[in-house]
Amino acid sequence: MKQLLATTFLLLVLHAAAAEPVAGIRSVAITVEHHGSMMSGVLWYPAGGGGEAITYGENGVFFGTPVLDNARMAEGPFPVILASHGLGGNVGTLSWLTAGLAEAGALVISVNHPNSTTRDFNLHEGLKHWTRTQDLRAALDWIAAQPELAAQADFSRVYAVGFSAGGWTALALGGLRADLQGYAAHCETASPSLWHCADLTWRGADLAAYSPGEWNASRKDDRIRAVAAIDPALTYGLGRTHARDLVKKVLLIGLGGVESRLPATDFSATGSGFAGQLPAAEIEIMAPAAHFSALLPCKPRGPAILAAEGDYPLCDDPPGTDRAALHKRIVSRVAVFLGL
To answer: Which pLDDT tens digit goes with each residue over 35-52?
Structure first.
């Protein structure tokens, strides 16, 4: 009987320990000269003890991610991951991914991209996609300039990950070049779709107003060794020449089957066909899911709140979708891909 009680107690202790967050976070502020302002962000890392247990990114619509605020950092060095959120998102929307990768053993930094976050949104400025790569380059430079962080970072293993517009940011840091003329040519015949072509124009983004030189220039950072992009945007009109300088190690994750893919971020043969331009890339389609299934899990009242605010149905997933399980699958896939 005593042995049974002891075994039961041990299992309860182990279960409780497993339920506790093991990713520590620290809020940061970084000066970004190209914006002429400060940029907020979060550093995610394997926790070494202490800190306050909180749920990051939680609001009336979404459940948050359990983390330890201001926890001590475990002993490194750790590989470094630069993480980029989608257009109109923020560091909280991808907290399940950044915390998950930190728990897997990485030092992760994510930033609120100026002009393209939830509360700081200007579509015309936000579509200047090259500024997002500058944001993450500044974040990496910031880590390197902090002696206590630099000592914990393995700069021989620097990776970029991102979702939607952030997926493009990661690919661009890895060496993929955009093509304004090619994208505009696609938009001349594209059917109306959420966050794509006509929808962007309706929202005030005129592709003709952008500089081809800035849009098409290489934004490659030679420190990036691998890229993982989830439903990346802006992949229309690209060929193999645009990927000539892209790092060899690339993972593309597509969300949803043919019937539920968001056209703006569909890289399959029925979409932009971009996946066909990367014969060496690892490609995985995860279903059932939809584009916004990559956002935090929704609370029961989430859909009603979004509807009342006239927002997008960010909580609507295809039947059978389990966001929490999908997120774990993505974290595991990316972690294995990056060798964490």
So the answer is: 998 999 999 999 999 999
d(CA 277, CA 337): 20
Beta-bridged to residue 117, according to DSSP, are: 89, 120
Question: Phi first, then psi: what are they for 200, rounded to 5°?
Answer: -65, -40
CB 225 within 8 A of CB 249: yes
CA distance 261 to 238: 19
Q: What is the DSSP string of 17-37?
A: HHHS--EEEEEEEEEETTTTE
Contact predicate 163/94, CB 8 Å = yes
- H-helix or E-strand spanning residue 131: helix 130-145
> Per-residue DSSP letters for 271-321?
TT-GGGG-TTSEEEEE-S--GGGGSPPBPTTHHHHHHHTT---TT---TT-
> Model pTM greater than 0.85?
yes
User: What tokens does 32 get?
Assistant: 């970004």
- How many residues does this entry show for the chain? 340
Q: Report the Cα 55 to chain-centroid distance in Å.
A: 18
Beta strands in 165-246 (DSSP E): 224-230
Q: What is the dihedral of CA 113, 119, 124, 126, to 10 degrees?
A: 10
